[in-house]
Input
Amino acid sequence: MVEAFAVASGKGGTGKTTSTLALGMALADEYDVTVVDADTGMANLLFHAGLADVETTLHDLLVADADVSVSDAVYRRFGMRVVPCGTSLDGFAAADPTRLRTVVAELAADTDVLLLDSPATLASRSAILPVVLADRVVLVLQPTIPALSDALKVEEYARAYGTGTAGLVYNKVRDPDAVERIAERGAQYFDGPTLASVPDSDAARSARRAGEPLLAHAPESDAAAAYRRAAANIDVQSGESEAVADRFRSAVIPDSP
Amino acid sequence: MNPTDGRLVHSRVVSDPGRALETALDRRLTGYAVLEPQETLLLGATGRGLLALRDGLPQLAYYTGTGRGGPEALADLAEPGPYSVELYELDAERLPDADARPDRRVSPVMPAERLAGDPELAARVRALAPDDAPTGDGRPSAVEAFLADEEKIAAIRAQARDEARTRAEEWGLADELE
Output
């Protein structure tokens, strides 16, 4: 049983990777969770998860003549399975999105919740791939006009591919009362609920510097509590693993990135 | 609010309003920033956004296209871009008194934080305007005003929907579309 979520935002700097790992850890209390850094061009999950020095990453699985198995790039950390992506340009250049689909299909066969940390852009076919393949998106945004515009765009792109919306995480919130009003007014436009409003937090920055997910670094912080609420508000709808795996396998993705 | 009272010191086209605000802040501009969206989501929604600034910090906002001021003017000004930007320098005493125009008042950080969505720029403004506070008069924020504009939101979604389908064709993903 698996449901695949693309954790997405239309632009960078929203705290998407922090959110992916935080939601993953919170969901791991109840589910078998696998987190994948699907942002193959701007990977940074490895720095958030203390995996900066690992030998094998998703990039190694995406090259044409990969001589490593998927399990070589899976690391058990913080109660989850984590698949980091490398940061070298060579690795990105050699990566083939067609193979991402196959890798994710293999991971999907053996987990309850698959979280894909997605690129912060909609501008290329490799960037849109996680949104195409996921069951639903989790939108991470700040309470600003451009961020809301971007979130609306991501939702439309997702909807075009039959991908639903699990909900919105307002992140780096400085004025919770204002965000409550914004979320209330924005609710009419989005298909999913507001999952949480996460306060702007030194704990998140400190966690990033320490190379640890927020929920491991500062589990008592207000931000961590907000992410746990967000996770509890996601109604995971696990489909049959094989159906999801089939979908990943059958997606027609062009060879060139 | 009449920018042409001032001296034109900067003129160019930028991708987003944050760059105009940043330039005004870098120059500690006292005067006006005039932002004109080069494309608008809705037909006939053209206009110019006027921001009155002191020492680079926004104080008043007005949008000529709708005649609205304050946070609503920032919402009206929000378009996909690009924007043509002109900065005018003016003697401080010739700027309108912000306290006399509560309908056009914005907090200094609001344009950077809510219109531009630029947290670094917002932090710079906040450091220079430590007493910055929401206008607190019960008016909707710029973001709320933006979300209240159902026509504009519908246009954003329709444009994204068309773009998603066009790009899917370009990327060979048309078979994946619903």
